[in-house]
């Protein structure tokens, strides 16, 4: 699949959200991390500032910072409008309103944009996409995949999920995937088949409750060792 400019709907999450979504401890943050499908999240920029070792991979990184910024401005209102229409699918507790959500996302994306050109030169941002990653076997200690697998159950096949998770396991010693819900806030129908698939291959796989819930019921992470 080749991503085009019109395919991009940038929506970046913050460092603090990553820490809570993936139950990241101080020791985890010292590991060699790859974020798959990070898009314009600020996790890479903020962890790098803290002295961390992180690489992000996403097809959007074929575009320039200016092109990504322009696409953020072009799609922002549509995303906010969709969120407004589907407010009942979210928990408005720590994030109190759609407006506050927009501010948090824009702040994260600005941090990404300010870091992107330098990070690209430093090879912290790598263009690429699942199910084939441009890395060697066990290159990383920890792979994180946020809001891609399971979320798009209706768009991405079970076969794509299986190949993608096998690829994440190939490049990293541990994999964490969040959330386990689809876009309708239902538990993805792929969760059980994937857990069975992994256990048949003698992988240690657990569902772990995390201290983050924005989608209703979206507080579970899959951890694969």
**Main sheet attributes: strand count, strand direction, barrel closure:** 7 strands, mixed
| CATH topology (fold) name | Rossmann fold
Strand order of the largest sheet: 3-2-1-4-5-7-6
Q: State mean pLDDT (0 to 100 scale).
A: 94
CATH architecture: 3-Layer(aba) Sandwich
What general form does the structure show?
globular
Structural class: alpha/beta
CATH superfamily (homologous) name: Vaccinia Virus protein VP39
- In total, how many beta strands? 7
Q: What is the alpha-carbon Rg in Å?
A: 17 Å
β-strand percent reads 15-25%
CATH class: Alpha Beta
Total tally of structural domains:
1
Helix coverage percent: 25-40%
Low-confidence segments: none
H and E order: HEHEHHEEHEHEE
**Number of helical regions:** 6
Alpha carbon gap, first and last residue = 28 Å
Protein name: SAM-dependent methyltransferase
Report on this model:
- The chain is of the alpha/beta class and 225 residues long.
- It has one domain (10-224): Vaccinia Virus protein VP39 (Rossmann fold, 3-Layer(aba) Sandwich).
- The protein is built from six helices and seven strands, in the order H-E-H-E-H-H-E-E-H-E-H-E-E.
- The protein has helices at 15-21, 43-49, 65-85, 98-121, 158-171, 191-200; strands spanning 32-36, 53-57, 125-126, 140-146, 172-178, 205-209, 220-224.
- It has a seven-stranded mixed β-sheet with strand order 3-2-1-4-5-7-6.
- Helix 2 packs across helix 4 and helix 3 runs antiparallel to helix 4.
- The radius of gyration is 17 Å and the shape is globular.
- The chain starts with 14 loop residues before the first helix and ends with a strand.
